Predict the 3D structure of the following.
Amino acid sequence: MAKPTTSEQVLQGTLDLLILKTLSLTPMHGWGLTHRIEQLSQHALQVGQGSIYPALVRLEQRGWIGTEWRVTENNRRAKYYRLTAAGRRALGQEIASWSRFVDAVGLVLAADS
Amino acid sequence: MTGYVRAALARIRELFRRRSRVAAERDEELRFHVEMEAAENVRRGMSPADAHRAAVLRFGGMQRFREATNDARGVVALDNLARDIRFAFRRLHRAPAFAAGVITTIGIGIGAAVGIGTIVYGVLLRDLPYDRPDQLVRVGFVTEGIGGPGDLQSPATYFHFAKSARSFTELGAYSTSDAFAITDGDSPERVTAALMTPSTFTLLGARPLLGKLFQPGDTSWYGERLLPILISENLWRRRYGADPGIIGRRIDIDHGEREVVGVLPRSFRFPSPSIDIFYPAPVPVRRPGIAPRYLTVIGRLRDGVSATGAAADLNALIPRLPERFPAITVEMLRETNARATVESLQSATVAPVRSQLRLLGVLVAIVLLIATTNIVNLFLLRAERAGHEFAIALSLGATRATLAQRFIVEGVMLGLASCGIALPATALALSTKFGFTEGDIPRLGEVSFAWPTVALVLASATAIGGAVGLIGLARTGKAGTFDRLRASRTASSPAWRRVQGGLVAAQVAFALVLLVAAGLLGRSFWNLRNAEIGFDPANRMMAQVSLPWSGYTSYGAVAAFHAKVLDRLAALPGVTSVGAASELPLTGHGAPLLREVRAAVEGGREGVTAASNMATEEYFRTMGIPLLAGRTFRAGDLRGTPAVVVSERVARRLFGTASALGRRIVLDADAPAAFTIVGVVGDVQWARIEDGDVPMVYFPLLRDGDGIPADSTPVYRPTDAQYVVQGTELPTAATIRRVVTEIDQRVPASNIRTLGFVVDTATARVRLTMLLIGVAGAAALLLGVIGVYTVVAYAANGRMREFGIRLALGAAPARVGGMVLVDGARLVAIGTFAGLAAALGATQFLRALLYEVAPTSLAEFGAATALLVVVTLCATLLPAHRAARTHPAVVLRGE
């Protein structure tokens, strides 16, 4: 289980964006979410497991995600998270603002002195 | 925005969800996560134990997760609340005097305010308990000069309006009398009756508890049929044991046998809850005129008709009165400026007490304001002290919201604690009703202590507590954290000191207004007690009887009955003199109960409207009313031209300074008749002391009626009489009752009281108002003193260091003390001037209650101001003294 040494801690503030995006693909439970994010980033990103739950609660209070208790394929009860309509709209805005941020940072870095 | 609202709602929902369930779900989710991670680790080849440990490790600490989710869920707010309550409790426990002061002040303030507010609301503002109360009006007929005061109507005007007015669906008329006695069974009982037209019941929407209401034909008094009556639920339960077979029963009332056709429920309180018997009143227009006026008229307006419109309708009908009743002349209507009035029944019902209740409300508001000012000041000072402490909390990362919550929690706790005083105080206020009765204040019986009142007390306590808590926060939060930390612990900013000073000056001003008012009322009361009332109440008592008609159909029979009673009373041990009259002064609860007569010099034009009374020979001596000229009555006075005795005022109005003795006057009562004046007696204060005396004509009440035939009696039969007994030893009420029933067992004696009590009752209104204002004034003065002391002492505390330096540099201690005194004196001076200005305006509203003292009386203003200034300046002496004795070294070291 060699971890990529280049793996980065997820930047504060981008975790919400990652969660929303991942949940937009399919509803899933908390543990699945952490692994799915790591997997999608090809293990470049590592999600602090203790920080994902507070983020989920926060997003739930904003009404961006909903929760329900379901049974997994292994017949276990788990809390599943899914994106709400409001969450889907928020995701669009978050993506746009993230792109603007990345572009801006890129411009600064690309500048020749 | 909606997202924010939704978040807030979710948070609130979380708060109310059971915390245990939230925690259980969170733990289950956490357990699931760790197990999944551990299973994954096992798949990667770890041993189960290692896999579990690694999973927990990777998760990064359970406790941190728990706290983080808690915080996000808002559960932490609940935890904080519990912590803040404990914190506030500890803080208040450390300052028991502050807590007790605030709790008591808020408690008493709310108790008094809610108590009085409930009464004022119930009496003045709440709708009358009838169908569509907005349509109910009182219809009056007002004239100048003749016909008596007030807005009562004569049968003729009522008949005219009822027949012709278009603005009303119905008009009803009634009068009340307490001269009825139920005479069946062993114990005769005097009751109050209302004589009401059947229309009055229907227009009010009355529904009987048993039986039925009157039918239109029920008003024919003079027919052969049995007269129907309605009785009150009170009488039905009290006298007839709630007998379900009461309908159709015959009861004996002094006029003879009556048939009970219905019982009215307690909720029917018209015209007053003390009415026990309702007669169907006929309105016989036997002597058509605008007098005698004894009918109160009410009506129900048609849909869409306003009171003003209805008044215009009636006023247009007045000129047509002479067409219907030729006895009423156009000149009479014009000379007396006759007009109709239409006023909402609600406001007419409470009109006599409106000004007093308003005064009561204003008093409570002022005391409450002063009390609140003190609380605000206390909180401000406390916040100032706590400021340093909270500045540290802020700099260590506490948020403003956290501090706000802490302040509010403290305030609300104090507010709720004050309910412990406020609820009993309110209950007490509403059960005692401040000593008022339904007789003093109409509708008072409808007011009671109930759940809405409790809710109001709780709500206001919470709101006031929270509000004063926030004041503390505003004070603390003003300066920046850094400034607060740097600032000296006791220094206070000039702006806030000005606010505090302003509040205290306002207190002083309010206290002065109340003191002036109390002084003026005190003087009024003194004047009333020392007023020349025209008779001597000492060592005298009275009793009242009302004879039934059957058996007492002639003047002679009635007079003989009274003579027998008087003889027996005179024979009682200790009794020195007895007399009787139709009515006694000051017993009528403010209304002149007498018939009015028009007295005119025979053959002349001068006349005076006078009240008529009837008196025995010994009446004047027994009452202590001076005989100014001539003689009192004697046998033979009813023969020929009958004799009258007039009061001094009548004599002077008719004859000026010339002697009235032997002069003949014409009295126009039921029919014009000539009389000879044989005596002139002193005037007496009649209805109320403050209303002064009324012109009075006394007819003779002779022992045997001079043996004149019944049908030629020139004066009315005195079936109602009041006995007066003077003596060194007064008989008991039981003795008087026995004396009367021994002569006729159907006749109950009532209203047995000493005349001293009668006079006390007559001054009770002013005394009560004076007491209320006096208590309010004393409370205001006390609170004002506390306010002045607190602020001056606090300001002096803040300047301790300055004083220390001054003293160290050689200032005289007296000079330093003087600086503090000047501080206090400035507050008192500002407050006094503002208070004097306010009092000059405010006392105008007292005018109706003042007796022989001007609302701007210099003596009362001066005394109140002097008292206030001296007492409040005393409050600054202590801090001044302390400042002068400041020890420089101690203060400087203390910094």
